[in-house]
Amino acid sequence: MKSVDTNSPARQAWLRSIQGLPTEIPEGFTIIRQSDFEKSAAWRAVFVFAAIVIGITVFQPEQAQPPRSTYRVTT
Q: DSSP states of 6-59 as a string?
């Protein structure tokens, strides 16, 4: 479905001014500000740690259960 909003350029300019971004997008740019959060060392360390924990959990052998007694002990 094609959008027929006639006020979309004005609305986008208004939102950009509220967010502190330039109202006009420079030629050749589609994204003015892009987060570099995904590129940080802390983010990668969290993913590596999570992968290690998941790997240990998946590949860890089951714990041996103590043998159950076949008789009832009463005192």
A: TTHHHHHHHHHHHTT--SSPPTT-S-S----GGGSHHHHHHHHHHHHHHHHHHH
**Which of 58, 57, 36, 54 has the alpha carbon at shortest distance from 46?**
54
Q: Distance between CA 46 and CA 53 in Å, rounded?
A: 11
Q: pTM for this structure?
A: 0.39
Q: What percent of the chain has pLDDT over 90?
A: 16
Cβ–Cβ < 8 Å for 25, 32: yes
CA distance 12 to 37: 25
